[in-house]
C-alpha cells in the first residue's frame, strides 16, 4: 500500500526495489542514506482537518492550493537529479553491468573452469563476490543468471567435442579429468554466486544453483558420452589394472551422482563402488561368489601374479580374501 500511494503521489513514478526490499528511490533507501534533514522540504505544513486524517497526500484535493503544494513537495522529494542519485546510490545501469561487472565475472569463471587441481588462481574472491552482490541489489539477477548459464553451457559443449575426438585408450582418463575439473570448479563458483542463488534462483525460480550447474554437465557432456563410456568401463573392469582403481571409482561415483538410474546399465560395476546397489546376498549363492573370486585370482595370475613368487602369492591370497568379503558386503551379506 505504501508503494502504491507513493506512485500515486509522485505522478506515477515507480520506485526501484532491491532483493532485500530496500526502496532505492529518494523516499526509501535515499532517505536512509541522507537523513530527513537533507531532503528537499515536502511543502508547507498542512492544517489539520478531516481531509488530513493520517492518510498523507491521499486526502488532498488536487484542485486546492494545499493539495497542489503537498503534491509538488512530494514530487520534488522523489525527483532527485539523475547525476546526484547515481552518485549517492551507486546505481549500476545495464550498460555498466555489461561493460564493467560481467566481464570481471566472466574472466573469473573462465579461470575456475579451466584450472588444474592445485593451481593458484590470481583472482580476488572478495571482489567477485562484491560484484555479484551489487548486481543482485541493482536488479540484474536475471541477466546475470542467464549469462552464467550461457557461459558454462558453451564451456561444456567445447569439453564434449574434445572428448568426442579422444582415442579409445585415452577416453576414460579424459572423461575422468573433465568430470573432476568441473566438479572442482563448482566448489568455487557456487559460493561466489550465493547471493544470487538465495535472492533470485531459490526465491523466484524455486531451484538451486548447484543443482542447475550439475544438470548442465549431465545434459551437455555425460548424456552424450554415456553409451560410448560404459562399454569401455566394462571392458576395463574385465581387464585388471587397465585403468587405475581411483579413476574407475571417480567415474562410477560421478555417474551415479549425475543420474542414479544409470546403475541399471551395469549393476555389477556400480555395486563395486556404491553400497546396496545389488539385492541382498543369500547363503545359497555363496558358491557363485567363490567362483567369481577364483576367476579374479586367475586374472591376477595372468597379469603377472605368478604362484612361483611367494610375495605375490601372499598378496593374491589377501586380495582374494578381501575380494570375497567385498563381494558379500556389496550385497549386504554379513
Structure, described:
This protein has helices at 2-9, 29-34, 65-78, 82-89, 94-114, 125-137, 141-164, 168-192, 194-205, 209-238, 245-258, 267-271, 286-302, 310-330. By secondary structure, the protein is mainly α. Residues 1-64, 83-88 and 308-330 have low confidence and may be disordered.
What order do the SSEs take from the amino end to the carboxyl end, as H and E?
Answer: HHHHHHHHHHHHHH
By DSSP (H or I, 4+ residues per run), the number of helices equals 14
The major sheet is characterized as: none
Distance between the termini: 67 Å
Rounded average pLDDT: 73
**Given the helix and strand composition, which structural class is it?**
mainly alpha
Dominant shape:
elongated
- What is the helical fraction, as a range of percent? 55-70%
Q: Total number of β-strand segments?
A: 0
> What gyration radius follows from the Cα positions, in whole Å?
32 Å
Strand content: under 5%
User: pLDDT below 50 for ≥5 consecutive residues: which ranges?
Assistant: 1-64, 83-88, 308-330
Describe the structure in brief:
By secondary structure, the chain is an all-alpha fold. The protein contains 14 helices and no strands. It is 65% helix and 0% strand.
Q: Keywords for this structure?
A:
mainly alpha; 65% helix; 14 helices; single chain; 334 residues
Secondary structure: elements and pairs:
Layout: H1 2-9, H2 29-34, H3 65-78, H4 82-89, H5 94-114, H6 125-137, H7 141-164, H8 168-192, H9 194-205, H10 209-238, H11 245-258, H12 267-271, H13 286-302, H14 310-330
Helix pairs in contact: 5-6, 5-7, 5-8, 6-9, 7-9, 7-10, 8-10, 8-11, 13-14
